Amino acid sequence: MAGNDAYTKLLIHFDGSGASFTDSSASARTITAYGNTTQSATQSKFGGKSGYFDGTGDYLTVPNSSDFDFGTGDFTIDAWVCSTSFANHQTVASKATDTSYHGWRFHILQTSGYLHFNQGNGSAWDANAVSSSVGVTLNGWTHIAVVRGFGDSHIYYYVNGVRSGGYIPVYPSNGSACAMSIGQWASPYPYNFIGYMDEFRVSNKARWANDFTPPTSAYDSTIVIYTRLFASKSDIGELRDSQFMDTGDSKMYINNINSPISDSNVLTFVSGLGLNYPQVYNTLGSDLTMLFIKQPLLLERILHFVNDLATGYWKGLYIGNKVVDSGIEAIFGISGGIGNSKDVSLPETISEGFRKCVTLLNGITDPFNYIAAFANTLEEHIHIPYYLRNSLRPTLTTRVSPAWDIMLDGTSIKKYVKKINLTKRDSEPIDHIEIELAGLKLWDVCNPATNYGQLRIKFTISPKGDSPIINYEFYLETREKKESATPDGSANINIWGRQKPAILAKGFASKLSDTYYNRYASEIAAEIVGANNYSPLLTWECDDYWISEFSTNDYPIDALIKLAEAIGAIVRTKADGSLTVRSRFPVKPDELVNETVSYAFDRTGIIAMDYAEEQPECSSVTVNINNGGSSEDYSIEAVDSTCAKPGETLQMRVYIPNENAEYDLKVTGDAKASKVGTYSETLDETITLTDGSGSVSKAIYSVNSYTLYTCDGSDKTMDYSAGSKTITPSDDTCSLLEISYETKYDLWNVTSSVSETVALCVVTESSAASSMTVIKGNGSNSANDITNDLITTENQATTVGQLYLYEHYYRRRKFTLDVPYSGAQDGTVASVDDDNSGIYVKGIVREASVEISLSGKDKSPKFKETIVVYGYENDGLL
Q1: Using CA atoms, how far apart are residues 667 and 644, in angstroms rounded to an integer?
Q2: What is the pLDDT of residue 411?
Q3: Which CATH class is domain 8-203?
Q4: Which of 194, 353, 805, 871 is least crowded, fewest Cβ atoms below 10 Å from its Cβ?
Q5: Would you call 126 helix, strand, or coil by DSSP?
Q6: Which CATH fold would you assign to the domain 589-616+810-873?
Q7: Which residues does 415 contact at the CB level (< 8 Å), separation at least 6?
């Protein structure tokens, strides 16, 4: 794999003979061995050998260099180690002298095997330094790294790709004026390394910012390409073979296409080859021009130009006879997008194991005989151009072949994969994966009963070279064998599993039998997942609400869905396996037009598209409210305002039916409530009494005066009960009442130290029921009522009704897109631009499923992402 680049300042493969060690970086530094340090075939991570240090005077030194005085800049030290003892602090590398507290040291702590990096200022070691929280494996290979960078001044440790520890150093990481040592600290505290070491590397770059998959092969060299270059012409069609030998024009052309690419570096152009490189000639006998490339993007530009010169397209990629390891990984045909006229077959990825010689040949015409590429490797996920061949001057649009791997029980099964389908849609709470494997070799390994209940499948994928790797983990829940009576006797295995929250579903969990009282929905949800040994606990990312009583005999995941539905939300699984309860609409449909999109799709980047329209269904919905946890004789009102800054006091009145009323005032989040006292208030109201009764707004303690206007003009009296809001006129069914009465309220102070929305709820043992109708448009087309026993407040009813109408009031434009892998997530905002039909829509991603298919003789991976985007609009149809 790549990794020996311009940022590499020291690289030791430990693949040499005896005590003769080689620096494989461009610096080619002298390495001196001491004691019995040797290169042994007893243990090896890569290459057949590793460095062996017996712990008694064994170490290496590299001459003093400012490259190893990191200061406050970015750096990485990484290696594979197989420690055979934790008897002392095991020094991996250091640049320090005796006890002067100068320099830095990177070592493995005795007993625990934790990593530790420290630096001094001449009088003391850095007091901020901490160790990793994960240790290396004794007598086993572990990848270790210490990293600083990516805009972060922290120093972090990585053990087998997992980040731990982290601190901001007080002192700069400067070495003293001495050699750098590998395997020993300075005398009189040598702290020698004991064991085997492989692939030791020092870089002046932060190699990793997040968790990563440890290297799967040795670090390899920079790409070197030898080829004849060609003249710079305004019209590609004017180029002829006779112009290829014009070195001056060739250099000008390459400089032109390289100028906007800051991360590519052309070191030299010469006529002829340097003495240190093999003499390679084309069939015409003229020497090739030498080109060094530090990054793959320039290679992409060259391949693009060469491809356009050809009258056809690349038919094949031919491998020389010195390819080792896994060799070439891929070529395959790929469409340039549904808006373009021609498919192009081209190399998609060239991965680890590509060692010596690859020759790209044009299958129809050969304008310059061949391109010979001599290198240790090309990038694992090289940039490859999409060809939009609508004219002689094609437009270059870059696609990136993602880095990916699939592991079962910690071992890669990538070479057996025929197809992977990862299904991610917001209509399902838990994502799942289905894998088709070639042959039956892994049948016993894929037994679901083995390690049942453990996350055995690990799928890693990265949208592009510099993007963080996304790690998915799944249970292995089913296996299926398929055999065919065809001449080739083909057979496949299909395995299937869900992400971590499946532990809360059928197949792993038992049904619930508990009853939950007087808690917020988020608290009940957290208790449900915690009781089922699920970690981390879910995040509640929508409005919270109070529940007096919740009983269910469902599986835990179904109970969570019920809790979410009562506030118009859904349950979803994130890539890391954590659960979230969130709104199905991150943005209101009316506000999508002003929203910034996370993903943009147009016809040049779409492989296939299906478009459908779904018409509006209703413009109103009635949501039934079950006030099982609040009495109608209580009400809450703000004194002056419903909004206060963090730290300020918000005063609330709770009107009560009597002075001995028993109730709880519940508040959400960080808010605190304290009772000030009980007060009286005189209210004057006019109400209409129909069907023999009516209600005032607050509970009546006493009546000061009243006038009752009856339908027949006669004098009537009225009846009421102290503490109630209900008025009953005597012997009359139709009256108008003017009343002055006394009521009482408790005054509460509510404060919060953070800025948040606070919900307040009065909880009693009485009950009542009501309903609310939510309307959009003219409201003439009603949906079926929504009834949910957990909907107990007007706020809940409004939210649930509004979200229901978001989905059913608008015309829905549904786009189902097949696109190259982009890493899209459901619940985000995307745009679809279909210039052929004049449609441009901003909508919400409802599905972002991934398919990797490896078919054909070349077993090349074809990446496809199925994106479902819903746009919403209403033209007054309802």
Answers
A1: 15
A2: 92
A3: mainly beta
A4: 353
A5: coil
A6: Phage tail proteins - horseshoe like beta roll fold (2.30.300)
A7: 326
